[in-house]
């Protein structure tokens, strides 16, 4: 497509613009963000086959989950920062090349080390897609001098979050017919499509709307902030995945690194995490907190329920994937149904209230529960995933400062991964040796409490009032 000329500095999209978001631009913007969520969830049904094939203990193979969590939680805001500073198209393309390499690696190096390295590379490479796509959309909106279509924002929320519900189903099918290596190979055609179409149809970074201030430099990336953030998160993750008193010092280390990060961020000219902006922008901070709480429930259901279905209810990996098919179908249908909705409060309240009911239902399941009950539970958790992904996406786009949208988008994914990390810790506590009915009941109570808090937070949040449904409230909150 022919890129429009950059809009004048300081201009904002208006409803009067005559430009159009063509399918050529939209295709690569939506394909790339699919890669991270499906890789996050496909592994849920692949851990047992990988453990058996590579003769690795289950306590070790769980690092295939944790490795991608950690890599993604750190890389999402890092890639967003790089996209903001050096251009989203460049960052997007480099990330896709990394994914291509990672998809091949386990198929030419048959060892657990290769699989773990591939998962970490996938986490890093796929993390470029979502924040870059968000920045690309905003740049294009400014070029075209028009507001971003709500349906496009809903589309990217479906691609970057709702598709996680498809992962267990897709993973089950691939493993059944092609073996566990296929969950890595499936990345190659998807990444190749996104790479080729992005090269051909996404406007070059040199056509980005002009930005005020000096030309970005490497110092704008804030490597010190990134290292502090990574160290704090890694320390916490290692402790949560192996809860022992002897490792309690890691919590102290994480707290110290967080304190240093806060100190550094408040004194840095271009902080990796803009604490001052988050402190002023309470609406955005509350959106991050809601995402953490909601996705704690979603990932606890995805991983904890999947393990219980295989370990206690006696189903195979591919059957466990198909049992979660109602989650995927209803999440997708719900996302499509509310794609053009601009009212946020009710969908976000329901995104916590509905899984609250699901958590209560989990308390009454046993290994002898009939299949239709298991399918019903999976269905209950599908609707809120669609509501949460679309509505939180809308909230993020309105509330994030325009010149930090890539970083803010990356941090939103970090919030999701923090929820998943806490979910992993809860599952580890519930299933210390093997999945049990009592462990599942404990998880159900934990889910009900956490998502109930998310519903309450949405109910009382003043930023979600209907009168604020159309403006971007974050544009006036520039970095100091």
Automatic annotation (TrEMBL):
Keywords: Membrane, Transmembrane, Transmembrane helix, Transport
Membrane topology: Multi-pass membrane protein
Record keyword Transmembrane present: yes
Primary localization: membrane
Spans through the membrane: 25-48, 54-71, 91-109, 115-137, 149-171, 177-202, 223-241, 247-266, 287-309, 321-339, 346-365, 371-390, 415-434, 440-460
Signal sequence region: none
InterPro entries: MFS, MFS_dom, MFS_trans_sf
UniProt-annotated location(s): Cell inner membrane
A Pfam family matched in the record: MFS_1
Annotated ranges, domain Major facilitator superfamily (MFS) profile: 25-469
Protein name: MFS transporter
Organism (species): Gryllotalpicola daejeonensis
């Amino acid at each position: 497509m022919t890129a429009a000329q950059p809009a004048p500095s300081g201009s904002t999209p208006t409803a009067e613009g005559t430009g159009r978001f063509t399918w050529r631009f939209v295709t690569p913007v939506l394909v790339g963000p699919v890669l991270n969520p499906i890789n996050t969830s496909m592994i849920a049904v692949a851990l047992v086959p990988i453990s058996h094939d590579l003769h690795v203990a289950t306590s070790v193979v769980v690092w295939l989950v944790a490795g991608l969590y950690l890599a993604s939680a750190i890389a999402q805001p890092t890639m967003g920062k790089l996209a903001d500073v050096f251009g989203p198209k460049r960052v997007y393309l480099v990330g896709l090349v990394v994914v291509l390499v990672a998809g091949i690696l386990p198929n030419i190096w048959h060892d657990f080390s290769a699989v773990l390295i591939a998962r970490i590379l996938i986490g890093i490479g796929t993390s470029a897609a979502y924040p870059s796509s968000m920045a690309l959309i905003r740049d294009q909106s400014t070029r075209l001098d028009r507001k971003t279509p709500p349906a496009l924002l809903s589309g990217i929320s479906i691609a970057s979050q709702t598709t996680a519900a498809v992962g267990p189903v897709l993973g089950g099918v691939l493993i059944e017919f092609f073996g566990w290596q296929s969950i890595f190979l499936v990345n190659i055609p998807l990444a190749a499509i996104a790479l080729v179409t992005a090269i051909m149809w996404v406007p070059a970074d040199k056509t980005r709307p002009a930005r005020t201030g000096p030309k970005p430099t490497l110092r704008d990336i804030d490597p010190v902030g990134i290292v502090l953030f990574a160290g704090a998160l890694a320390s916490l993750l290692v402790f949560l995945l192996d809860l022992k008193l002897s490792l309690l010092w890691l919590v102290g280390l994480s707290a110290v690194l967080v304190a240093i990060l806060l100190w550094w961020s408040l004194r840095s000219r271009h902080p990796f995490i803009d604490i001052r902006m988050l402190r002023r922008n309470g609406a955005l901070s509350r959106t991050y907190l809601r995402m953490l709480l909601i996705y704690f429930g979603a990932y606890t259901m995805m991983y904890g329920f999947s393990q219980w279905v295989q370990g206690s209810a006696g189903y195979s990996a591919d059957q466990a994937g198909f049992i979660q098919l109602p989650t995927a179908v209803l999440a997708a249908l719900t996302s499509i149904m509310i794609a053009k909705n601009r009212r946020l409060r009710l969908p976000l309240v329901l995104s916590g209230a509905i899984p609250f009911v699901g958590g209560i239902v989990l308390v009454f399941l046993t290994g002898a529960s009939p299949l239709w009950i298991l399918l019903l539970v999976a269905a209950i958790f599908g609707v809120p995933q669609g509501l949460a992904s679309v509505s939180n996406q809308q909230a993020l786009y309105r509330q994030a400062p325009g010149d930090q949208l890539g970083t803010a988008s990356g941090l939103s994914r970090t919030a999701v991964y923090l929820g998943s990390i806490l979910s992993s810790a809860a599952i580890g506590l519930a299933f210390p040796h093997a999945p049990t009915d009592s462990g599942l009941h404990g998880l159900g109570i934990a889910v009900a409490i956490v998502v109930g808090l998310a519903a309450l937070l949405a109910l009382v949040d003043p930023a979600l009032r209907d009168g604020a449904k159309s403006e971007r409230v974050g544009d006036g909150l520039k970095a100091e």
